[in-house]
Amino acid sequence: MTGLMGGWATLAAAGGGAAAHAAPGIPAPGAGSPIALLLLGLPLLAAALCGVFAATGNRSKLPAFTSVAALGACFGIALMLFLNWNGQPATARAFDWISLDWGAGKGQSFDAHFGVYIDGLTLLWMLFVTGLATVIALYSMEYMSHDVGLGYCRYFAAFNLFVFSMTALVMGDNLLMLFLGWEGVGLCSYLLIGYYYKRAAAVAAAKKAFIMNRIGDLGLLMGILSTFVVFGTIEYAPLFQMIASGKTASGAELASHWSVWGIPLMFAVGAFGKSAQFIFYTWLPDAMEGPTPVSALIHAATMVTAGVFLIGRLYPLFTADPALIALSVVAWAGVITALWAATIEMAIFDIKRVMGYSTISQLGFMFAGMGLLTPTGAAFHTFTHAFFKATLFLGVGAVMHGFGGQLDLRRLSGVMWMRGFGLVGIAMLVGSINLSGVPFTAGFFSKDVILAQAFTTPGTMIWGAQAAAWLLLLTAGMTAYYTFRTFLRVYVGPREFVPGDDAELLDLGRHPKGVSLDEWHAQHGHGHGHGHGHDDHGHGSDHRAAVRPDFDPTTEEFDPHPPGWSMKAAIGLCMVLSILAAGVYFMKPAVGNHGGWVAGMVGQSSAAFASPGEHHGGAAEHAAKLGTFLGYDPHKVMYYVSAGVGLIGILIAAFLHGPRGVWSLFIGNRTSAAVAPRADALANLFGPLTRAARNKYYVDEIYDALVRTPLRVLAHIFHILDQGLVDGLVNLCGALPRMLARSLRPSQSGVLQGYAVGMAAGLGLILIVVWVLMLR
Amino acid sequence: MLSFLLIIPLLSALAIGLAPERASKGLAMLGSLLALAAGAAVVASFDWGRGSAFQFAAALPVVPELGVTLSLGVDTVALWLVVLTVILQPLCVLGSFSAITERTRTYYASLMALQAAMLGVFLARDLIFFYVCFEFTLVPMYVLISLYGSTNRRKAATKFFLYTFTGSIIALAGLIYVAWVAATRVPDAAGWTFDIATLRSAAQAHLSPTEQGWVMLAMMAGFAVKVPLFPVHTWLPLAHTEAPTAGSVILAGVLLKLGTYAIYRFVLPFVPVAVVEYAHVVAALSIVGILYGGLICWVQRDVKKLVAYSSVAHLGFCMLGMFALNAAGVQGSILYMINHGLSTGALFFLIGFMYERYHTRSLEEVGGLGSKMPIWSTFMVFFMLASVGLPGLNGFVSEFLCVMGAFQSGAYTLGPGGTAGPLGPWYAFIAGFGMIVAAMYLLYMTGRIVFGPLREPPGHDDHGHGHAGSHEGGGLPADLTAREVVVLAPIAALCLFLGVYPKPLIATLEGPVNDKVQMVLSLGNAAGAAPAGAAGGER
Lengths: 776, 539
Fold this sequence. Notes:
The complex is a heterodimer.
Chain A: H1 2-5, E1 30-31, H2 38-55, H3 62-83, E2 90-101, E3 109-118, H4 120-143, H5 150-171, H6 175-193, H7 200-231, H8 236-245, H9 259-274, H10 283-286, H11 292-301, H12 306-313, H13 315-319, H14 325-345, H15 351-371, H16 375-402, E4 412-413, H17 422-436, H18 442-456, H19 465-490, E5 496-497, H20 503-506, H21 517-524, H22 544-547, H23 565-580, H24 596-603, H25 620-623, H26 634-657, H27 677-685, H28 687-694, H29 699-744, H30 751-775
Parallel strand pairs in A: 1-2
Antiparallel strand pairs in A: 2-3, 4-5
Chain B: H1 2-18, H2 21-45, E1 55-63, E2 68-74, H3 76-95, H4 104-123, H5 127-136, H6 138-148, H7 153-185, H8 196-206, H9 209-226, H10 235-242, H11 245-270, H12 272-298, H13 303-322, H14 327-358, H15 374-388, H16 394-408, H17 425-449, H18 482-500, H19 503-527
Antiparallel strand pairs in B: 1-2
Helix pairs in contact in B: 1-2, 1-4, 2-3, 2-4, 3-4, 3-11, 3-14, 3-18, 4-5, 4-6, 4-11, 6-7, 7-8, 7-9, 7-10, 9-11, 9-12, 10-11, 10-13, 11-13, 11-14, 12-13, 12-17, 12-19, 13-14, 13-16, 13-17, 14-15, 14-16, 14-18, 14-19, 15-17, 15-18, 16-17, 16-18
């Protein structure tokens, strides 16, 4: 057995591999520091420790401290790797995971190691994943404190497991390792969406997220298998070299091979599933059932960007196709998703779901960026979005925490002016101006890179690039509108609120600290109706009124519950980071001279790609073929155009939803939380369209009718058929021997003896036949 | 050495039968632990360098005139299945302590006799001995189901017995035909023999393609019922559902594997031409089983029946990999046998433990146990994930390899990563939907039974909260006892280990599997056109 175990090749660095001739774009990887493997190990260790705390019945905040420490250490390691990085890709391996051999030839062995591949894309993702994970773990320490005990351990175990999975996804050195992370983040998302597992809505949302993701995962799996069959490897380093050589493993011209568009399309399906792109997006709004820190980290900043990462990681393959078919599909999926989600956001009232749809819409921008040939823009937007969307979510979480889970923007107003909520309001403002693309914010710069490139990329390369660009610009305006619609209604204006139905539990000091709500509930014998989400911070407002008919906010005392130090610290940190993220645009990149630090990181990764028209000034002959913005160079005018569009969106929001009165810097006419005459009139004007958008265009219902219901009917038919088959067949087969047994031993009621005898007799009979045959 | 693996369980069955009732528990535990030790000794002294060779050969002529010999031997494939059997056995005994309180003597004696028979199947190198063991498993299993099962036990036991017995008789006819061919057509045959290796070469050399087709049909008639392959799976849900917990565990964990093992051992090498010709039929049936079984799981109200039907879907993957006839597929298939035994076995344990407390398996009556039974729920979610094929746990490795094998099989025209073989990417793609369906029904199951508001059968817990001690359910506490955790923890550890580091299995199975695959393909293709020579066009 010792021979087998030799595979524990203890943290052996892989070395340069078989890279005899490095591709021009991506050099062969060097030996990476094995310390990088700690990024996988530490979160796993922390998750295991949380499990131990759960088993030992720990009732302190120890799981939170452990998590913050482990994740902080991870961020430190990621930072150290970045600072010591020489700009070249590197790999390091821990041990073999799945490896098979069935011959000596090319493609006759399959290798998937537990190993890491480090390049600019990896480091970019790891820095914001570990950084934000640390901050949000800090936030969760307080946010989840109502559930100290088993639930707290469960939460942080899944949280750490998520970071492990995300790390595996981002850092893995082969596609199967990516798949491990891919499904792993899906699992943690499932566990955390369903955190409030007693509520049917949360359980259903968790299930839906996992299953919708699995549909995408099938595409990813088929992509991985096709990659192996065509290229004979699923490890990045040899794969990239083979793609750069322009040949498949069997020597065919890659450019004219089906795999050059077929495989990227399969991967794109996987990416659409994980990143909630059009037609798979419906799971993400429902995922808002999870605790808000989870929404911030997983369903806004990190996991949902995995699709963007996947496309960036395999950009050499996507761009090897001369017709760029897969990228055109990606671009249009992104554009449609961005626009589609934006129209829904403009109509709905649940501020957390607004953030959810906004994430879908912004992911659409990132996909459009990838598709419209600016991986830099996509990665940059992913980076800035991670910070400002986390800020927004954490702010929404603070409001929910403080107002008993209230999420309806018609029932909250002037929150910013309430005691203890100033920081929250400022953070929300910072997040909102980023999301709207107000000039000089991080979100402005990153969105600008995508928009400028969208107008530049010629339609001859990406199908319908010009139309896509105009739609994206329109969506940018809509984004500004819906963002400030929320901000102006909830955070400024007259101070007014209706607490959510969690109010009586979370406030008024009736719910003692350190006792989980379940126990508290059990002790106090409260028996509300079914589906009562008393221990929740994160559910929709739709069933709220029905749940607590007895609660009258005007007569009962309710004090908003301002966030404590750890929540405030996390919100503040996120806010500062989202401001600072703008700064990277002005940092000189390590390669090239345009696009800032992110461009440098992307330029030193698999996603390195010279976007058409990027180096303006030179190559005047190309200029004619490039797209323009109404005849101007998009890279020069887009700053002003997108700024203008964003400001128009904000002004419309101010006109329709801005408050009237002392606090009004605006032209608005909103008089209370619920009454905004102009907005309501406009909504009525669009009547059915508004209703459709508020109901998310009935997409869930359509899926239900077209897929789920037919499948269930089919399943029931199968079930009935199967039982009929059982009885039919068995009665048929059973009748004969039973009669035989009865005639042989009429007095015996035990069937067993009959069969044993029958079996022996049968065996004997056969032996006799053999005997006769042999003697013949 | 291998004979200890047979003698120990047989002797303990005998001892349990003779000893008083109160000793049977202990004797069964002792016997199964001794068998485990014997298994460990075999593993320790196995020569891993020669994994394809049958080691520890031992032979005892029984009926020399007929060539019937009690001959034993293991290669790595058989050995890992033996290991699975000896690991599950003590856990089954331990898991039955509180469930079986009456007629314990018959129960534990049957359990031990069953183990002897199952080990006999894996160890046999003689056809008659193999068949006797194969059939003998039915008797103790019949006893277990019909005496210790739930309400429909008689019907279930009879169905189980009849169904599999009928199939096996046909399989025996096919095998005997092979023996007859070996005795009559081989030029220098020294009379009758049932030695498997001899029969194999005789079958390969002297069966015409048509005969091979018939022999394959006959053998599949017996073995496919055991697997069970769609559409001959219908005995399984009832038998699984009605069997006592340990019975279900053994049934899912090992008994089904007798079918797949027999296919690996007899069908593939004996009739390679027919296998290559009809592989796509078997694969198609497997895929139908995956989707059909999976969808049926999704509408089950009885949680045990749900897991039972999931075996139909799971074993579909196992058969799909087997008939991909390449390294990845066949290795995946063998890993699947082991992994399914662990994860589905554990799910049956969990359901059994719940049943002991609530006396119902209906998802309508009981559910939301997450708050009431956190330890149980944690294990439930863990094994659900192993079953759903989450990477990092054991189920994924085997499922991925089976799908990969199906994808590669015949895809040599697409690139060097493809292999020769009868299937192709479309098989893998359609089977891949089974992974989505698996998520649907397994999450439906956990969504009902672990999550959601707590539902208990009426009258279950009248004492109210606060009395954390005993319920009416046999004096068991609300959550798992230490004994029950001890049953589940080793399986969980194995699931995790084999998911993260399956190399010990893969590396040792590589030799025999590659040999077998090469043999089947070269013989199977030699008769027909040789596709390896045909240069496939792109796309």
